[in-house]
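Dear colleague,

Following up on Tuesday's group meeting, I ran the structure prediction for the two-component complex that the binding team flagged. I've pasted the input sequences exactly as they went in, so you can double-check that nothing got truncated or mislabelled along the way. The structure tokens for the whole assembly follow below. Feel free to forward this to whoever is handling the docking comparison.

Inputs:
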Amino acid sequence: MGVDQDKLEKLVDQMPTFPQSAQRVMEICADINYSTPELVSVIERDPIITLKVLKLVNSAYFGLSKKITSIKHSVVYVGSNTIKNIAIAITTIGILPKVAQAGISRTDFLTHSLTTAVLAKLIGRSKGVAENELINFYIAGLLHDIGVILTAQLVKEEYKQAIDLARSENIPLHIAEQTKLDFNHADASALLVEKWQFPPALVDCIRNHHRMDQLENPTYMENSVFIANQLSKMMQDDAARISAVEIIPEITQDWLGMPVELVIDTLPDFEEEMQRIKAFMAL
Amino acid sequence: MQITFYGVRGSIPSPGPDTVRYGGNTTCIDVITDNGDRIILDGGTGIRQLGLDMMNSLPLQCSIFITHTHWDHIQGLPFFTPLFVPGNKVDFYGAFDPVYMKDLRTILAQQMEYCYFPIRENELKATLSYTSLKEGDTIQVGSATVTSILLNHPVLNFGYLIEADGKRFFFTGDNETPLNIYKPEDEEYDEYQELIIQRESHIIDFIRGVNCIVIDAQYTKEEYFANKVGWGHGYFESSINFAEKAEIPLVHITHHDPTRTDDQLDAIFKQLTRQGSIPTGMQVTPATEKVTIHL
């Protein structure tokens, strides 16, 4: 049995809209002249972001002598700039799904998504992409596989078979999905981010992340996310990997200009960024 | 206690004929207790000359307290000669950065990475230690104690209270008295104001009656309200008012704006006196490089 396209679209329709608070936090953070009362009110309206900001501010990392009891209190104490910067880290991680089905380990999924996000951003930066555009590279990396979770929710049993097939044959998951379900998760991911009204370039990048060999002229974002995805899979141990590493198309390899194994060595910030994200993930 | 300014400039060094009287080096203050224990506040470019002055008596031991890790408070450290001499002991103290999840050592070592500086942190010959402070921690340095309190700047910034020989001295580092983010007609205004008042009283109580304060006031009132609100620095009147609330008799204003000439600074202080902004019984002066205060 394949994935019923109508059912999938219905499921996407039922998914919550992209949390407005997250979108506003991102917009506010991109604006150097942001309004602090607006930032406070956006955070306060989202109980989960509020809870995590307060948890961090009250943690040993900050080492404050007083207990901070509200977002306003936190702004008075540590300043709006600091709250803005921790809110963006908490918010982007918070977009990821809270549960996973069909035998997918949520921790492995989160680690793969975050690793891909960080790598896509750093690869983009190393290729000279402007800082304000790198947030889209990061988000594309973060959400490229969200369709895995979505599809697994729709057709649990069949999806488990697709994962088993990918593992036993050591093939990329999207090929196993195609065999078992006549469908691949990149389309599901793209449907969702399209509904969330992300920019078309980001939607296309996610939709194309297993179709690179069909692109005549992949964008920097598509190349970066594709390479980041392969690297992230290469870093996983066998138990965690549910999808085999793919061959890099020639055009992307030329763009990269070095063997993929050497990329990490050219990204000195990688380990540090991962450590930072893991600390935020633990909140 | 003897307090000497080695750097009084904010943001970026500003050497030249127009800043030669007050000085162009960024923040560094040398504090020596009557027993000879040495506490250095911040490692801006002023610490280079301090390091040279310290080299006549080796081996040496000192404690460097970093208020925060913006460049103008750490950029002199790679040129602090005592760090290169075996047998010296230098203890660093400062906040952890909870936004980038980095401790003090990582941040200071990063400014000495090979692309910025030819000698790496782990090649320094002195014995170094790093301690991440929490707010309210008290560190014993010989006969003195140093206690941290969080002030307001766009990164965690600790003010340090030094107590020794029966005297108390406070340095703010960079600080802006928080303003209400709401308009008086907004319903959140009163709640926020209450939080600001609580916070301010906490700080005022902490430093009440110290013998001397060195306080950030980078801007004039006009500059501040024109477009510097939220930048993390005080203006002259706000800082004087803060010191007055804390009943502090001796006030040195520091973190002079890099564009401020000596003549402008003189003119500002004349104007402050003329308009009655300096309370009776309070001595207020611009911090000046190589000037020593004896408490």
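Chain B touches chain A at residues 95-96, 98-102, 132-137, 149-150, 152-156, 178, 181-182, 186, 188, 191-192, 195-196, 199, 202, 230, 232 (CB under 8 Å).

Cheers,
M.
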